[in-house]
Amino acid sequence: MAVKHEYDHMKKAIADCHVLINTTSVGMSPHIDSSPLDRELLTPSLTVCDAVYNPRKTRLLKDAEEMGCTTVEGLKMLVNQGAEAFEIWTGIKAPAELMLKAISK
């Protein structure tokens, strides 16, 4: 019954959230069919972010979109983190859109 208890606990925790962020490697290539949680736990009121950027659209993000959630992919998170670091170190505004375009190729 430990698994059922953990599932129920996770379901309640997610029900109280507005943003869910996956920072694990679950879903990263080559394990692209893996997701850190069951799609049934996703509700349309959630914004789901996945730090995994290979593949760009993970199983978690696909499931979240299908369940009506807003999604944020890992590549955008990676680029924005890099842009912020660039600005901190150089004092120059980073061209985040250009960076995203370059890394997307």
Automatic annotation (TrEMBL):
<dbReference type="GO" id="GO:0004764">
    <property type="term" value="F:shikimate 3-dehydrogenase (NADP+) activity"/>
</dbReference>
<dbReference type="GO" id="GO:0009423">
    <property type="term" value="P:chorismate biosynthetic process"/>
</dbReference>
<feature type="domain" description="SDH C-terminal">
    <location>
        <begin position="74"/>
        <end position="103"/>
    </location>
</feature>
<dbReference type="GO" id="GO:0019632">
    <property type="term" value="P:shikimate metabolic process"/>
</dbReference>
<dbReference type="Pfam" id="PF18317">
    <property type="entry name" value="SDH_C"/>
</dbReference>
<keyword id="KW-0560">Oxidoreductase</keyword>
<dbReference type="InterPro" id="IPR022893">
    <property type="entry name" value="Shikimate_DH_fam"/>
</dbReference>
<dbReference type="InterPro" id="IPR036291">
    <property type="entry name" value="NAD(P)-bd_dom_sf"/>
</dbReference>
<dbReference type="InterPro" id="IPR041121">
    <property type="entry name" value="SDH_C"/>
</dbReference>
<protein>
    <submittedName>
        <fullName>Shikimate dehydrogenase (NADP(+))</fullName>
        <ecNumber>1.1.1.25</ecNumber>
    </submittedName>
</protein>
